[in-house]
């Protein structure tokens, strides 16, 4: 390495974790927006109101799951705040689809959101194309122009489902359309500087390093061996590189090159990702980009360094967000621990999902399908706080709701009705829509003068809660026999015990109190505890077993529970 080793004091990407004298906001996106405005003013001092570009990105590997929506929705909230402030915003999302396929995924996803194994599709389309760019690989489902296009379509559909307007940008298109010409030429012209900078972040970089990976004209694979560079072609021609198609390391396997020696233009290949990422900032004019903490310690410092000291590009405002887990475990396509946006929206409303992502990105969180009712309850309180319906709301809660609620809903309407999620799950135990509405009205959840749209919105939650019960196989995943009493024969002691339990519930008691009373009632009447629980399951489900009975009965409308225990209906 040369003696004039460069100095680099890059910007920390922990934008939200920095404790300084900046203006305090109730919403983290306002804090980021302040920094974006300052960045834009510094970069465009002579422009009155330049377009602000917010970016996210992904490589088309694995299954595009809920975790991948992090960058879309984190970027959306900053975009929404800046739009509120009067700025013109473009939110782009790049698919790094000129990357080579390095290994076969275990699981894929069709355009309808169904996870499928390789055996259910044309796996050969992938297996025959290891080392090829994603956009040069046939779609194994046969529905899109390429494997890369298939993946990008799912990302676009996910953004549409949560009403985030993004412009999907194919990195392949940036190369083939010539958008990357100048930055690629610049990187090659400064290749000595490139290896000096990159050598600080990667051990296997020496003075022979060339920041460009051609696509072999013979076998179609991306190769990393460049043997020559020509930056002074004849007029009208593009710069070229000479290459030899050599083997590529792909984790624990090797993708064999074909040995062909040829020449490729700068549109017939790609820059390595540590140059391509900062190159995108320059080509797209990016002002802000959020990314996961896995990029914070390696990719961001090198990207910032390459941008400033090789490509002469000013990096955007960064923001590290914490990954969230799924039911306590990391997202993993190979382990089957994934959920798609389309699946989530069958369980809860889009505004609840947007609310989850509106929470502080610097804190790790768990998205629990098992306890989804808690997230929905939290959203309902957040919504009620906005409308001034929560008397004990703290000052911080009120400020957050006032600022954020209009950004997560399509329209703030005070007449909205939100059925408690577990109550909606109880209603989902019957198929009769009229009965569902009747019970909801009788229990006071739907006012007599409620507008029709609000009633429809409220009852739509029932189907979502029912889907949740079935997915998790929880205590609401049973058919509650509401319309008629199941056939039964109880002795006199059981009859008396059921009547006592009815009186206890009618007097008003909580879930665990009811559970304890079931035991005590059986004991007082000298009834086997298991048989007494079985009597309850027979009356309500026509089954010999079921959910934890006390908490369940506490969640069902009291009038019905008491009447059924007394065998009145």
TrEMBL record:
Positions occupied by motif 'KMSKS' region: 330-334
Broad enzyme group: ligase
Catalytic activity: tRNA(Lys) + L-lysine + ATP = L-lysyl-tRNA(Lys) + AMP + diphosphate
GO MF annotations, alphabetized: ATP binding; lysine-tRNA ligase activity; tRNA binding
Family annotation (InterPro entries): aa-tRNA-synth_I_codon-bd_sub2, aa-tRNA-synth_I_CS, aa_tRNA-synth_I_cd-bd_sf, Lys-tRNA-ligase, Lys-tRNA-ligase_SC_fold, Rossmann-like_a/b/a_fold
Superkingdom to which the source organism belongs: Archaea
Pfam families, alphabetized: tRNA-synt_1f
Region of interest (Disordered), residue spans: 1-23
Species: Natrialba chahannaoensis JCM 10990
Designated name of the protein: Lysine--tRNA ligase
Compositional bias annotation for Basic and acidic residues: 1-11
Gene3D superfamilies per record: 1.10.10.350, 1.10.10.770, HUPs, Lysine tRNA ligase, stem contact fold domain
GO BP annotations listed: lysyl-tRNA aminoacylation
Cell compartments where the protein resides: Cytoplasm
GO cellular component: cytoplasm
E.C. number: 6.1.1.6
Family indicated by similarity: Belongs to the class-I aminoacyl-tRNA synthetase family.
Motif ('HIGH' region): 60-68
UniProt keywords, alphabetically: Aminoacyl-tRNA synthetase, ATP-binding, Cytoplasm, Ligase, Nucleotide-binding, Protein biosynthesis
């Amino acid at each position: 390495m040369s003696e004039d080793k460069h100095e680099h004091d890059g910007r920390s990407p922990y934008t939200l974790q920095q404790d300084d004298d900046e203006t305090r906001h109730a919403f983290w996106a306002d804090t980021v927006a302040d920094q974006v405005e300052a960045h834009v003013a510094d970069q465009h001092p002579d422009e009155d109101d330049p377009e602000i570009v917010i970016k996210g990105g992904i490589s088309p590997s694995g299954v595009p799951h809920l975790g991948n929506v992090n960058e879309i929705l984190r970027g959306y909230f900053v975009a929404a705040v800046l739009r509120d402030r009067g700025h013109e915003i473009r939110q782009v999302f790049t698919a790094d689809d000129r990357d080579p396929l390095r290994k076969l995924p275990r699981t894929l996803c069709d355009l309808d959101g169904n996870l499928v194994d390789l055996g259910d599709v044309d796996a050969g389309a992938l297996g025959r194309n290891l080392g090829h760019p994603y956009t040069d690989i046939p779609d194994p489902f046969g529905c899109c122009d390429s494997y890369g296009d298939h993946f990008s379509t799912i990302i676009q559909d996910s953004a549409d489902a949560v009403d985030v307007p993004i412009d999907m940008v194919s990195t392949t298109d940036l190369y083939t359309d010539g958008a990357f010409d100048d930055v690629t030429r610049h990187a090659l012209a400064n290749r000595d500087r490139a290896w000096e900078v990159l050598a600080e972040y990667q051990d296997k970089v020496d003075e022979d390093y060339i920041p460009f990976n051609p696509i072999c004209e013979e076998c179609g694979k991306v190769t990393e061996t460049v043997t020559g560079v020509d930056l002074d072609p004849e007029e009208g021609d593009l710069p070229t590189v000479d290459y030899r198609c050599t083997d590529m390391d792909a984790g624990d396997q090797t993708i064999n090159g074909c040995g062909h020696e040829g020449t490729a233009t700068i549109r017939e290949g790609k820059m390595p990702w540590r140059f391509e990422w900062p190159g995108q900032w320059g080509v797209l004019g990016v002002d802000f980009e959020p990314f996961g903490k896995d990029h914070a310690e390696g990719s961001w410092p090198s990207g910032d360094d390459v941008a400033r000291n090789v490509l002469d590009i000013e990096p955007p405002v960064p923001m590290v967000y914490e990954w969230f887990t799924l039911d306590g475990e990391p997202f993993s396509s190979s382990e089957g621990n994934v959920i798609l946006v389309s699946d989530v929206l069958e369980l809860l409303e889009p505004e609840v999902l947007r609310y989850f992502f509106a929470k502080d990105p610097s804190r790790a969180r768990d998205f629990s399908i098992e306890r989804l009712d808690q997230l929905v309850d939290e959203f309902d309180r957040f919504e009620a706080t906005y409308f001034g319906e929560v008397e004990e709301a703290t000052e911080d809660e009120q400020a957050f709701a006032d600022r954020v609620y209009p950004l997560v809903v399509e329209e703030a309407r005070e007449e909205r009705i939100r059925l408690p999620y577990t109550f909606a799950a109880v209603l989902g135990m019957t198929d009769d829509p009229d009965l569902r509405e009747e019970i909801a009205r009788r229990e006071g959840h739907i006012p007599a003068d409620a507008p029709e749209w609000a009633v429809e919105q409220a009852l739509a939650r029932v189907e979502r809660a029912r889907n949740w019960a079935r997915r998790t196989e929880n205590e609401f995943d049973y058919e509650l026999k509401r319309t008629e009493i199941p056939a039964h024969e109880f002795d006199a002691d059981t009859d008396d015990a059921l009547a006592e339990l009815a009186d206890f519930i009618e007097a008003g008691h909580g879930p665990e109190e009811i559970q304890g009373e079931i035991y005590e009632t059986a004991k007082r009447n000298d009834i086997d505890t298991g048989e007494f629980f079985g009597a309850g399951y027979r009356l309500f489900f026509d089954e010999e077993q079921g959910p934890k009975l006390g908490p369940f009965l506490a969640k069902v409308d009291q009038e019905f529970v008491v009447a059924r225990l007394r065998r009145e209906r």
